[in-house]
Amino acid sequence: KFGKNCNTETKWKLGISAFPSLSADDLSELVPNKEELNVVKIYAHKGEAVTLYVVHKNPLFFEVEKRLYPTVYVLWRCPALLPTFTTWPPVLQKLIGGADLMLPGVVVPPCGLPDVKQGDCCAVTLVHNRAPVAVGQASVSSAEMQSLGMKGRGVCVVHTYMDSLWAFGDKSCPPCVPDENDEHRSYKEECEVSEEEEGAKVEVEQSLEEQHTASESITKQDYGGIEDLSLAEKEEEKSEEGDEKEEENQEEQETPQALMDALLLQCFMHALKTRVKKSELPLLTSTFLRNHMFSCCPSGKQIDIKKSSYKKLSKFLQAMQQQHHLVRVKELTKGVESIVEVDWKHPQLRSFVAPEETDVEAASVCDEVEGEISYHPPEITTIYSGSCSPSYICCLHRKGATMNPTEVRSLVTDYVKKNDLVVEHNKNFVTVNPVLCDCLLEKSEYQEVETLKWDDLFSRTLGRMQVCHQVVFPGKAPITKKGQIEPIDISVASRGSNKKVTLIKNLELYGLDPAAVASALQHKVQASSVLHPVPGSKDKVLVQIQGNQVHQVGTLLLDHYRIPNKYIQGLVKAPKSMKKK
């Protein structure tokens, strides 16, 4: 809700009274006299009422529980407005995710921590940049922080760069405000490091000269061959150490997040150059990711936007539009974005060379396909146990043995013929003798039922026996268990507000490795998968894959593993395809 233009008294209350370090000139620059200062009332996700003071659609201050805070937009223009705590850049992602600033992550400058009391408003900056990225309250005073050994909570964060309050404004990025003290200190550190490296080099050269003189004395004693071997081994060790140092440096420089960003950019460029056609535009961003970017992902790698710095596809495409100017994304319908234009003449896109799949990658794909084809589904048959058989069956068959339906039918026929129970005038019926009456009839039927049809006799007999199932894998002994075999259960569950996951269980009963099935689905649908133990079971594992993938799971089980449809449960939960009007 927007209010009217605020008067000069309100501006004075906002600036000078709440923040004494803010001068009248700074306040006039932030809120010019002729500009309109609007008041906006919003509600946080927990229901707290928050009052915003907005100029040019940028929130400058916000008030929570009668406490006034500046936003990052104000602090970028007045970095010295609040006392600041410095932390490392990787901590910023944790702060954006809702975490508070912990004291072990605080970088203590040579001049010491800022003088704050418990509850004071303070800001958080990153190393080598004075532009604040978060605002909050000090959990404890500076003296208590040092007495606690810099352990525990330092700042309770209430607002950060890239949160919803920042998104209310123009979404600008933090400026680069270098700290002169940091520059002088880094220069001194570099000089010290260079002097240490020169000293180390001198020591290494001296040791090498000593080793060389020692080797010359050995050569005088006719050990030339040993000298050659030792020198060769030293050179190999030096080269190995150099390679290891280079690999360690590369690993330190390229974090998993940076690697995922590079993979996203590579697949994005590859898809635009080789897959997307002009006739397909406008193209849904979700379709572009699923049908084009995923198919351009190299073998052995997997695209996971959540592991990148963008976190969402919309933010990645927004960066490709604003920073690289490769595409233009537009929201054609509410909540659904599409790629409406691609600059195929862009120098970056024209110079991009699509990577080719190597023979090793192709061979690995062939191995995976052969591994899937080598699986043969088991033969599953329903059998009956004689342990609970009617007494007349037990007389003809060994108690406890298993029988298939044909054997049970044959035993019943032999019993009827042996006791001459077939009705003479109608051979479709069997006379119920006292044994059959006790075994097959209910008490209410004793006086009413005198004959049974053959089919009724067989079905009643099978109904009184213990149902079992027998599983036979190729080249292995049969496995017999009581009851019907459980089908492969496919279900869809909700995680969070609007996230779906597909759950698969009972794969082990059919000789399928849950890890192999999860890996096959992961490469097929390009979604993350996890294995969980089934509660209450020691040997069963549950496969969880992101999204509603019921259709893909069914296709994999039916077509690749050739599991009969009657042993798969939950295929009806597949998402229905949208019909074009």
UniProtKB/TrEMBL annotation:
The keyword Phosphoprotein applies. CDD domains: eIF2D_C (cd11608), eIF2D_N (cd11610), PUA_eIF2d-like (cd21156). Residues 488-561 form the SUI1 domain. This is Eukaryotic translation initiation factor 2D. GO terms for biological process: formation of translation preinitiation complex. It is found in: Cytoplasm. Keywords: Acetylation, Cytoplasm, Initiation factor, Phosphoprotein, Protein biosynthesis. Pfam families: Pre-PUA, PUA_elF2D, SUI1, SWIB_eIF2D, WHD_eIF2D. Residues 199-213 have a biased composition (Basic and acidic residues). GO terms for cellular component: cytoplasm. It comes from Gouania willdenowi. It comes from the Eukaryota. Residues 187-256 are annotated as: Disordered. InterPro entries: EIF2D, eIF2D_N, eIF2D_SUI1, Pre-PUA, PUA-like_sf, PUA_eIF2d-like, SUI1, SUI1_dom_sf.
